[in-house]
Structures are given as structure tokens and as C-alpha cells.
Amino acid sequence: MPALLVVLVLTLARVLWLGLNEPNLYADEAQYWIWAQTIAGGYYSKPPLIAWTIAGFTALCGETEGCIRLFSPLAHAATALLLAATANRLFDRPTGFWTALLYATLPAVSVSSAIASTDALLLPAWAAGLYALVRLREAPSLAWWAVVGLAVGVGMLAKYTMAGFLLSLALWWLVERGPKPALTGPGPWLALGLALLVLTPNLVWNALHGFATIRHVGENTNLARGASFNLGEAAEFFGAQFGVFGPLTFALLLWILSRRDTWREARTRLLALFVVPLGALILGQSFLSRANANWAAPIYAAGTILVAAWAVARARTLLLRASVALHVAAALAIFAGPPALAAAGVDLPRRFDPWMRQRGYDVLGQAIAREAAPHAGARFLFDQRRDMASLTYYIRPHPFDARMWEPDGVARNTFEQTAPLRPEDRGPFLYVTRREDPTDVVSRFDRAERLARLVVPTHRDAALRYTLWRLDGFRGYRD
Description:
This protein folds into two domains: 2-335, no CATH class; 360-474. The protein has 24 helices and five strands. 61% of the residues lie in helices and 8% in strands. Strands 2-1-3-5-4 form a five-stranded mixed beta sheet, with helices on one face. By secondary structure, it is α/β, with parallel strands linked by helices. It has helices at 2-20, 27-36, 49-61, 65-69, 71-90, 93-105, 107-112, 118-138, 142-158, 163-175, 186-208, 212-220, 231-244, 247-258, 260-264, 266-272, 276-288, 299-313, 317-335, 337-343, 361-372, 385-394, 414-418, 439-442; strands at residues 379-382, 403-404, 429-433, 445-459, 462-474.
């Protein structure tokens, strides 16, 4: 009950913040919202669960930024409670309480709760799978095998990183000498069948679209260009984890994983095997090419339980209290700091604004809509994915029929795949670009008129700068 109460209070605070403070949608969030307008089995760069979820929430509460993001704090609340339940069964109720509190206040969770992200949907599936595995460790059950299968399937619909769960499960089963679920019997087959059944829409969509999402995930690793063996990238990724998981918490997790006792005791060994394999893979990826800080997010599900269990067992909860206090202070600085400073008349420079990439697009969209009003019938044309995503949301009415400049015939993003400018599209177009000299684009039209130069200040030292052109008579990308 204490864990439930703490998680509910934090979640309510986050939901209220979303309703009262709505930074502009980041380009990826706007792109997910665009996907949500057309329900499909998959999309260019991600599996479909985030689009399906946004479609459901916006049908209930509208298309404001807060509503588009509303699922995130709720999903993280579910993850916190699932991890607490897992800790309760593996250890005791105090460990469950500290697990819930620690997870709910992690820096990455605080930030992720304020944005629409695939991680928010992946993590409850991962936590549910971990809980089901702990139940199977206690006693065989077809029901809990079914939960494992459903968790894996739903997790894969959220993000393909869920495959790391299967890796950890396989390694744990191979090295574990104590109680573990038998792989004979109908249970594992039931789990596999349910996982594939849940994932079927995405598998079919990929098969019909040249496995676009799977190819994009492969391209996103940058390994096709050859390994770079960049120690600096690996160090940057590793260092970023102190921010993702919290400085004290991450240092403590590393210490726990380095101890022999962790690997000797069955319960902590289980948790460690759901941290180390995926963490090592992503760290290796960062060394070979690059890796975003959040790619290792699932390891902190089991990692949070490990840290809480170690501290509670040794009466070191002061470390947990200090970590939670530090995390809450960081969250207050991120979420309450900018509005408080603005109210005091302090204009933050861009580099100190945690929402620096989410300012000004609403104003820019209104300005473009005013300029576009006399040009009824002209469709919008963009040359960057992020601009097309953000401005499709912020220009009203939404220009869902916009086109993307795509001269080489190779789709590298969702708009080049679904809405490329084709030779038969003659125009007219309203071309929105941040480039000052887009000669390569405007020269391919019979008529080109520069309508406006739009400058929207976002900070005292930064502004959005775009140019709006009217183009007509597209002659194709080349003569």
C-alpha cells in the first residue's frame, strides 16, 4: 500500500504538469501523432504500439500535447508497481517499497513521463515479463507462461529492444542450477505462440513493406558503414548512464554487479542477468559505432530491484533516501525551474533550457498558416523530416497532404516512404525550409516566389528561422 500511494501521488503530479505545462511536441512525438492518424501494423522507424496508444488517448481526450503524452506517466506507474510486486516476491515488502520509489523518481523516468516515447511502453512489458518469470520460478503454471508470451509480444510491438529480454531469459536458464521453469511441456510453446500472435500484425506489415522497420533499426546502429572503435563514444554513453539512472544509484549498481555474492545468490543472479547482457551489448554498440543513452533503459528494471534489495538487506536505506532526494531535486530543476525563472523575468539561454528543442513551433505554425491563407489549394512541401513532422502538427488545419522532397529515390524516413514529391505532382506548393539558399529545390520548378522570411525567437540567444516559398510547375528532380 505505501508503494501504491507514493506511485499514485507522483503520477498525479506528472499528469497535472502535462495539463498545465505543454512544451511543444518534439519532432519524433509529432511523427508518432501523424502515424496515429492511420492505424497500421507498422511504421517506417518503429513498431506500431506507440501510434496505436496515441490514437486511443487522443480519441478520449483530444489532440493537445498533454493528451498525446498522457500514456507515458501512466505506463511508468504500471512499471513501478510491477517491479515492486517482483521485489516483494523475491525479497520482502520494504524492498518492494524502495523499488517502487526509486524507479518512479529515476531521472530518466521523470523525463520520459513528460514525453511520448516508445520506452514508456516497452518498460511495463519488460517488468511484466520479469514478474511472470519470478512466478514461474516458484511453481509451473500455464497462466504465467502465457503472461511471458504476451509480455514479449507487446514489448516487441513497442520496441525491438524487447529481444534483449529473451537473451537474458536464455542465459539465466542456461546458467541457473536452482529452481527454474522447465522448457518441456506446453508452457514455453504457449508463450512462443502468443508472442508471435501478438507480433503478427507487425511481421505482416514488414513483409509487405520490404522489412522497412527492421532495416531502419539495422541502419540506426551505423554498423553497415564499418566499426569505428570509438572509445570516446563509449565513454560518453557510459557517462550518460549516471544521468539516466542517477549518479548514486548507477555507482551502487556497478558496485553490486562487481561483487561475487551477487552472482552466487540465486535471486540476485537472476536480476543481474537481466542487467548485464543487454547493458554490455549496448555499451559494445557505442564503442563500435554509437548508442543513445536511453537504449539501455530496460536494464534498470532489474537494476532498480538489485539496488533496493542490497541497500535494504544491509540497512543502508540512507543511500536510497539520498538517491531519491537527488532525483527529486533534479526533477524540480527540470520541470519547475524554467517556469519559475520565466515568472521571475529570467530568460534562459538556449543551452541551459532543458526544453530547448521544444520551443517556438506553435508560434511558427501560426505564422506559416497566416502566410499560407491567401494560397488556398497549395500543398506544403518540406525537405527535412523533423520540420515536416513538427509543422504538420502545428500548422492548422493540419496539412496531412504535405509532400517531402526526395530527389534520390531512396526512402530514409517515414515521409520519404509515404509522401514523397513525385514527378507527376506539378503543384502549386508552399515550400517551408530552414535553408537560406535552396536553389537545388526551387530551380526544379517553372515558377518560384519567395513569400516570407519567418523568424521566431525561442531564447534570448536563439530563434527558429524559416523561409516560405510558393512553387509551381514541378519539372521532376532532373532533366
